[in-house]
Amino acid sequence: MSKRDYYEVLGVQKSATEDELKKAFRRLAMKLHPDRNPDASAQDQFKEAKEAYEVLSNAEQRAVYDRYGHAGLNSGGGRGAGPGGPDLGDIFGDIFGDIFGGRGGRGGGAQRRGSDLRFVMELELEEAVNGVEREIKVPTLVGCHHCASSGSADGKTGTCSTCGGHGRVRMQNGIFSIQQTCPTCGGAGRSISNPCTWCQGAGRLEEEKLVRVKVPAGVDQGDRIRLSGEGEAGPAGAGAGDLYVEIAVREHPIFKRDGDDLYCEIPIRITTAALGGEMKIPTLEGSAMLRIPDGTQTGKIFRLRGKGVQSVRSHSKGDLLCRVVVETPVRLTSAQRELLAELETSFTGESADHSPRSSSWLDSVKDFFGRIGA
Q1: Which of 104, 157, 241, 356 lies at a 20 to 30 A Cα distance from 60?
Q2: At what angle are helices 40-56 and 59-68 packed, to 10 degrees?
Q3: Rounded to the nearest 10 degrees, what angle do helices 40-56 and 18-32 cross at?
Q4: Is residue 191 a contact partner of residue 160, using CB atoms and an 8 Å limit?
Q5: 235 and 265 fall within a common domain
Q6: Backbone phi, then psi, for 288, in 5-degree steps?
Q7: Which residues, 6 or more positions from 206, have their beta carbon under 8 angstroms from its beta carbon?
Q8: How far apart are CA 110 and CA 94, in angstroms?
């Protein structure tokens, strides 16, 4: 299958400037990146757009592509990041900074931001449905209070001699050029002659941080809440990562949730099922009355509209679906046994009228045995 034109993939003209290419890729990334769009076709389109941007943002490869097309790239220089183009770290640090909370960039001693963190918060069903505010303790790295996150005991820093303050070094191997974090300064672009004794020059310390989380009403199992800047502090004063709070809803003794709807099972006496009646049932908003018509069978589902959940993604409220289970009485007294025996006797010869399903099943059994000669 032939590849699409790279300019067509990004939706730009062949005369597009580097800034126009960057904006076009940013727009596509916001729409297609796997963290935002799980659809398989979107992932393929994202890979296609990333490949196009990698080539066109590299001056040398773009010149080859403009002259020879895809064939020139396949036969000549590949698609590695050359001296004039960004590597993957640059692309995701610069292009996706505002999507994922990154603060990193190119050159100028731009340190990589701190790592994102994940915290699992367990909630009762009622808390998930109605919303709740919680304080959580998160083990993380915070900026060192003793050196104001600088890593230097006296606040003085110099320029890293290995990377010249850029935070990244470029390794050349023939036609391939690869950028990587400076091994000397760890991407900070600075050197410290008098490191802080508390953080050993890292600019951050291990600590348990107290974070207040406001959980919106209607969250469900697996939902994530992003708290920007509440993740790990970056090295030497760099921006902090984000904290992702993942919701885990505990099993409820009565209700089960499926999207916006709630389900529950309601046991009823055989007499209530036969004669009908009313019974009080629980909902998340309090009690409600449910009318049971006479002749109700096990498995019958009654729907109480608007007694379910209004999720964070919907404008309408779900329903409560109650499945009836007719319960066979146990530990009967002798008087109760006599009454049931008398009732059973009264059905003789009229089973089709009182138990239509049983009669239909018995007819099917007789027909089956007749076919097999049993």
Answers
A1: 104
A2: 100
A3: 170
A4: yes
A5: no
A6: -145, 155
A7: 139, 140, 141
A8: 11
Number of H helices, E strands in the chain: 12, 15
Domain identity same for 279 and 364? yes
Q: What is the CATH number of the domain that holds 208?
A: 2.10.230.10
Question: Which residues make beta-bridge pairs with 215?
Answer: 132
| Phi, psi for residue 304 in degrees, rounded to 5 | -105, 105
* DSSP label of 190: E
Distance CA 372, CA 163 (A): 88
pLDDT in tens, the chain (374 residues): 578 899 999 999 988 898 888 888 888 888 877 666 777 787 888 888 888 898 898 888 888 888 888 877 765 544 444 444 444 444 444 444 443 334 444 444 445 788 899 999 999 999 999 999 999 999 999 988 888 888 888 878 888 888 887 778 877 665 556 777 788 777 777 788 888 888 888 888 898 999 999 999 999 999 999 999 999 988 767 788 999 999 999 999 999 999 999 999 999 999 999 999 999 999 999 999 999 999 999 999 999 999 999 988 888 899 999 999 999 999 999 999 999 999 888 877 665 566 666 666 667 767 776 777 65
Cα–Cα separations (whole angstroms), residue 72 to 2, 79, 87, 105: 14, 11, 20, 31
Among candidate residues 206, 224, 249, the one where a domain is terminated = 249
Let me know whether 92 and 167 are in one domain. no
Q: Are residues 368 and 305 in the same domain?
A: yes
What does the angle CA 185 – CA 188 – CA 190 come to, to the nearest 5 degrees? Answer: 70
Which range marks the domain in which residue 216 is found? Answer: 117-249
Dist. CA 195–CA 215, nearest whole Å: 41
Nearest to 231 by CA among 112, 134, 108: 112
Please, are residues 136 and 120 in contact by the beta-carbon 8 Å criterion? no
Q: Which residues pair with 210 in a beta bridge?
A: 137
Domain boundary among 100, 134, 166: 100
